[in-house]
């Protein structure tokens, strides 16, 4: 499932790039 992988990667990246500080 490419969609699932893409979403998972995007979510992980966004979560790391956007911490609670933001």
Short key terms for the protein model shown above:
1 helix; mainly alpha; 22 residues
Descriptive notes:
- The protein has 22 residues and is mainly alpha-helical.
- 73% of the residues lie in helices and 0% in strands.
- It is built from one helix and no strands.
- It has one helix spanning 2-17.
- The chain is rod-shaped and about 30 Å long.
- The mean pLDDT is 68.
Helix content range of the residues, please?
Answer: over 70%
- How many individual β-strands? 0
Oligomeric state as shown = single chain
Distance between the termini: 31 Å
Strand content: under 5%
Major sheet size, sense and barrel closure: none
Rg on CA atoms, Å: 10 Å
- Mean pLDDT, as a whole number? 68
Summarize the structure.
The chain has 22 residues and is an all-alpha fold. It is built from one helix and no strands.
How do the strands and helices of this protein lay out in sequence?
Layout: H1 2-17
């Amino acid at each position: 499932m490419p969609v699932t992988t893409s979403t998972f990667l995007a979510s992980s990246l966004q979560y790391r790039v956007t911490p609670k500080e933001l």
